[in-house]
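Exercise 7b. C-alpha cells:
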C-alpha cells in the first residue's frame, strides 16, 4: 500500500530540512516544484518550494495457523492443572 505526502514551504532552508527529515523515514520525492501562482495576476504570485513524496507502507496480516491453535490449547491445559 502506498502513502503520499505533500509539503510546501516559503523558506528554502526549512523546506530542505523537512525533506531531509522525511527521507530518513523512507519517503521518496516523486515530484518537485519551486513556485506556485495563486490567482490570475502577478500580484497574486507566491513563491513556494513544494514536493510530493511517496512511501510504501507494509501491510501485515497475521493468520492463525493450526500450530498456533495447538500451542494455545496446550498452554491453557497447563495453567488449569
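Sequence design result:
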Amino acid at each position: 500500500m502506498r502513502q503520499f505526502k505533500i509539503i510546501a514551504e516559503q523558506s528554502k532552508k526549512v523546506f530542505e530540512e523537512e525533506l531531509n527529515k522525511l527521507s530518513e523515514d523512507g519517503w521518496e520525492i516523486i515530484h518537485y516544484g519551486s513556485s506556485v501562482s495563486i490567482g490570475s495576476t502577478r500580484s497574486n504570485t507566491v513563491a513556494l518550494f513544494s514536493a510530493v513524496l511517496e512511501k510504501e507502507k507494509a501491510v501485515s496480516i497475521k493468520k492463525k495457523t493450526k500450530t498456533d491453535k495447538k500451542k494455545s490449547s496446550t498452554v491453557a491445559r497447563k495453567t488449569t492443572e
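Instructor comment: Helices lie at 12-24, 66-80. Residues 28 and 53 are 5 Å apart (CA to CA).
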